[in-house]
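Anyone up for a design puzzle?
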C-alpha cells in the first residue's frame, strides 16, 4: 500500500501545484492543447485503421492539428513569459499590451494556417 502512495505522491504534488499556481486562462489553453492532441491522434488512428484514400484531406487535417498545437504552445509560452516579466519588473507600459500582441499574433497565424489547410484540400 505504501509503495502505491509513494508512486502517486509526486504526481499528486504536481497536480496540486498546477491547480494552485496556474490561472484560468492558461488552464483553458492547456485544455485546448489536450483537445488538439486527441483530435490529431484520432485522425492518425483513423488513417492507420481505414486508410488515407483522400490523402490531401488526411494531410490537411493532421497538419492543421499539429500546426495549431505549435501555434498554441507559442501563445502559451508568450503569456507565461509576460506574466513572469510583469511580476518581476515594473517597466513603462508599451503602446500595445504584450497580451494583446500575443493574442493578435495567435489569431493571425491561426488564420494563415487554416487558409492554407483549406486551400490544400483542393
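Challenge accepted. My sequence:
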Amino acid at each position: 500500500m505504501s509503495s502505491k502512495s509513494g508512486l502517486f505522491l509526486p504526481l499528486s504534488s504536481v497536480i496540486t501545484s498546477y491547480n494552485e499556481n496556474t490561472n484560468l486562462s492558461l488552464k483553458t489553453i492547456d485544455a485546448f492543447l489536450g483537445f488538439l492532441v486527441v483530435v490529431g491522434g484520432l485522425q492518425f488512428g483513423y488513417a492507420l485503421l481505414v486508410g488515407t484514400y483522400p490523402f490531401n484531406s488526411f494531410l490537411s487535417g493532421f497538419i492543421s492539428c499539429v500546426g495549431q498545437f505549435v501555434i498554441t504552445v507559442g501563445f502559451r509560452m508568450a503569456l507565461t513569459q509576460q506574466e513572469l516579466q510583469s511580476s518581476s519588473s515594473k517597466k513603462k507600459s508599451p503602446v500595445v499590451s504584450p497580451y494583446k500582441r500575443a493574442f493578435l499574433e495567435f489569431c493571425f497565424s491561426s488564420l494563415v494556417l487554416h487558409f492554407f489547410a483549406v486551400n490544400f484540400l483542393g
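A detail worth pointing out: The mean pLDDT is 87.
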